[in-house]
Amino acid sequence: MTFQPRMNNRISGFSVIGGLNRREWNGIVADLWDVECAPVAGGFYVADDPRLFIVLDAKGGGRRNIRLRQTQAVAEDSRRQVISYIPAGMELWAEMVDVNYVRHLDLHFNAETLSRRLMEDLDPRKLAMPRLMFSEPRFLALAELIAAECVNPQPLHDLYGDGLSVALFIDVMRLGRVRSRKRSELAAWQLRRSIDYIEENCLRGIRLEELAALTGLSQSYFSHAFKASTGLPPHQWQMKARIERAKTLMLAGDLPMSVVAAETGFADQAHFTRVFRKTVGATPATWAKSQRL
What we know:
Layout (H helix, E strand, L loop, with lengths): L6 E10 L4 E5 L2 E20 L3 E9 L3 E5 L7 E2 L5 E5 L5 E6 L3 E9 L1 H8 L5 H4 L3 E4 L2 H15 L6 H15 L15 H13 L7 H8 L3 H12 L3 H19 L4 H7 L5 H12 L3 H9 L1
Antiparallel strand pairs: 1-3, 2-3, 3-8, 3-9, 4-7, 4-9, 5-6, 5-8, 7-10
Helix pairs in contact: 3-4, 6-7, 9-10
């Protein structure tokens, strides 16, 4: 599914020149804007996803300032090139006085998609930490290359712009090397996604192919990695989830064991009893009696 960033704004004094230039990659959207400014222009913006606001060029001798709340002290900078990182859901207020023209690049990032791609959980503290009006030649060089790709009438391979944008995100967020995991273990997001899927769908037959597709792994690799991470193969984890459902039903009322077995996806009462005893260490009837006592 294509990532579509959502942004609300209320601005005045800006006139777009030539329309929006946009490129979309996997979890990243790049918008390049050229705008003319009235003597006093500004307003506020708020987006559902984290983003980089990068001024690539500005003309005029006036001042530019931004802040994260309407009443906050301003961060002011008159340099032609400047960068701001704005976390998801955070308002950005901007004001430009006697600035004639601004060319800026907006990079919107889907944090969940990038977390999967980078095979690690992104630090929520870093994602929530704003950085306003800073300048870093390395970042600006990458931003210029991304902007050039936005207006390129014959764009290069998607991996080019995508790689530049991911590299900029990694650098700005100061992401280090992924900590090595034990051989064949799932990444945290892969384990979380597969367990949630198993527990939500435990009452039906779940194919190994489904779970492998969720995590982007081969069936063989996923099966070994899941067991290395949990101590159980996927099928046994599913049986464990069914047993937990069965326990809930038994505690809720005096249903016949044959009904509990059917409701939790077992072939018959005998199958249910065998699996329950193996998992819990007691038969369903014995366990239910102990809970009532």
